[in-house]
Design a protein that fits this description.
Elements: H1 7-18, H2 21-60, H3 67-74, H4 76-85, H5 92-105, H6 123-143, H7 150-165, H8 173-185
Helix pairs in contact: 2-3, 2-5, 4-5, 5-6, 6-8, 7-8
Length: about 200
């Protein structure tokens, strides 16, 4: 006759097994591996919901939305990046960094239309996104000392210059300040920097 373990006995067995380093390591690896597809799915889900929020602004405002409107619509998704960062496994910080960039890019619209660049009401979004990128960038650099930031630096800097032409200041200045020295260390990358 097979004896079934009751919940307390099973819990005690699992806890005692997890005290064994080799078993704990195996369990941690298995859990991490099993969560990678969920992490990718959550990443894609956030991006899909960002796109939906942008479409709603476009539909509601009949193509009269400004960057302020788009920033307001996607600002809440920056908070979801914190949840996303909770996934274990290599590459999560890099994906979170990229996710913030993609959310920020969704705030941009046709700024040549009347008032397309907004009225300066996107500052909260820009500040929060910049602070999050700085935090993620510092962690990512620790996790990936050889992280190639030259292209990211150039992309952020080029976008910043374009936005400044439309009166939008503050496209990740703290992030640029953080990664500029790293980009300069990478001699194979031409860093746009004439400031």
């Amino acid at each position: 006759m097979i004896r079934l373990l009751t919940k307390p006995h099973l819990e005690n067995l699992v806890l005692s097994l997890l005290q064994t380093p080799s078993i704990a390591s195996t369990v941690a690896t298995e859990i991490t591996t099993s969560l990678i597809p969920a992490r990718t799915s959550f990443f894609n889900d956030i991006l899909a919901r960002v796109e939906e929020a942008v479409r709603e602004v476009e539909n509601d405002l009949q193509s009269e939305g400004t960057t302020d409107d788009f920033a307001d619509a996607v600002h809440l998704f920056l908070g979801e990046v914190a949840t996303f960062r909770g996934f274990p496994g290599p590459g999560t910080t890099a994906m979170a960094f990229d996710l913030v960039i993609r959310i920020a890019e969704a705030t941009l619209c046709d700024m040549d239309k009347p008032h397309g660049s907004g009225y300066g009401e996107r500052r909260d979004f820009d500040r929060d996104a910049d602070e999050l990128l700085v935090e993620l960038g510092a962690i990512r650099r620790e996790e990936e000392p050889e992280w190639k930031v030259g292209e990211i630096y150039n992309d952020i800097r080029a976008t910043s210059r374009i936005l400044e032409g439309y009166g939008i200041d503050g496209w990740f200045p703290k992030t640029l300040e953080l990664i500029a020295p790293w980009a300069r260390e990478q001699t194979e990358v031409i860093v746009l920097d004439d400031d």
